[in-house]
Automatic annotation (TrEMBL):
<dbReference type="GO" id="GO:0016757">
    <property type="term" value="F:glycosyltransferase activity"/>
</dbReference>
<comment type="similarity">
    <text>Belongs to the YkuD family.</text>
</comment>
<dbReference type="GO" id="GO:0018104">
    <property type="term" value="P:peptidoglycan-protein cross-linking"/>
</dbReference>
<keyword id="KW-0133">Cell shape</keyword>
<comment type="pathway">
    <text>Cell wall biogenesis; peptidoglycan biosynthesis.</text>
</comment>
<keyword id="KW-0573">Peptidoglycan synthesis</keyword>
<keyword id="KW-0378">Hydrolase</keyword>
<dbReference type="InterPro" id="IPR038063">
    <property type="entry name" value="Transpep_catalytic_dom"/>
</dbReference>
<keyword id="KW-0961">Cell wall biogenesis/degradation</keyword>
<keyword id="KW-0808">Transferase</keyword>
<dbReference type="InterPro" id="IPR050979">
    <property type="entry name" value="LD-transpeptidase"/>
</dbReference>
<dbReference type="GO" id="GO:0071972">
    <property type="term" value="F:peptidoglycan L,D-transpeptidase activity"/>
</dbReference>
<dbReference type="GO" id="GO:0005576">
    <property type="term" value="C:extracellular region"/>
</dbReference>
<protein>
    <submittedName>
        <fullName>L,D-transpeptidase-like protein</fullName>
    </submittedName>
</protein>
<dbReference type="Pfam" id="PF03734">
    <property type="entry name" value="YkuD"/>
</dbReference>
<dbReference type="GO" id="GO:0071555">
    <property type="term" value="P:cell wall organization"/>
</dbReference>
<feature type="active site" description="Proton donor/acceptor">
    <location>
        <position position="164"/>
    </location>
</feature>
Length: 204
């Protein structure tokens, strides 16, 4: 996980963190908000392999329209559409040791979310402790959750796993995360606009 050096962040973040995940836009998209256009222009960019770019495909899952299926083996996320179709996105997911599987629902959605390093991450990367001490990192292009976050719940309990944007779009298609499901920032926005709180998510 990287963080970009950006002028609006607190000064010590620039010393601790180096680069942020996220796909940018080659040209402004008028359907996006002004904040989205501004932040995406500042976020890191990468050429994502064609097989991990967003496509509408035949539904390979047989699940009900409106369901999200995460295929961690092949690094795809599917949003099931009516008529036997699905929107397929490339993702980065957890390694076998860090990955999470199960059924959940989207319990909360946030645009350009605030990020607080979880306790298990602080144990692995103590250099992030000043970020926690400062109350976390505000939303924006320097935030590792990227443009959008969809929080996975089981019942009323937060699983602590999320579907979110990424500041390392070059790693889409790889098993590299700490368990969360990363998408390019522009794909995270697209999925966010399709799902709602209560959407069923199956991670396999």
């Amino acid at each position: 996980m990287r963080f970009s050096k950006i002028t609006w962040a607190l000064p010590f973040f620039a010393l601790l963190l180096a680069g942020c995940e996220g796909d940018g836009l080659a040209t402004p998209d008028p359907s996006l908000s002004g904040r989205d256009q501004e932040f995406l222009a500042l976020a890191p960019k990468a050429d994502i392999p064609s097989q991990f770019q967003r496509y509408e495909v035949a539904d390979p899952t047989g699940e009900k329209p409106g369901t999200v299926i995460v295929d961690t083996k092949h690094m795809y996320l599917y949003y099931i559409l009516p008529g036997g179709k699905a929107m397929r996105y490339g993702i980065a997911a957890g390694s076998e040791a860090a990955g999470w599987t199960g059924t959940a629902t989207i319990g909360r959605k946030e645009e350009w979310p605030h990020w607080m390093p979880p306790s298990d991450m602080l144990k692995r990367w103590p250099h992030l402790q000043p970020t926690a001490d400062a109350g976390g990192l505000p939303g924006g292009p320097g935030n590792p959750l990227g443009s959008r976050a969809m929080y996975l719940f089981q019942g009323n309990k937060d699983t602590l796993y999320r579907i979110h944007g990424t500041n390392e779009p070059e790693q889409i298609g790889q098993a590299v995360s700490s368990g969360c499901i990363r998408m390019s920032n522009i794909d995270a926005i697209d999925l966010y606009d399709r799902v709602k709180v209560g959407t069923k998510v199956i991670v396999e």
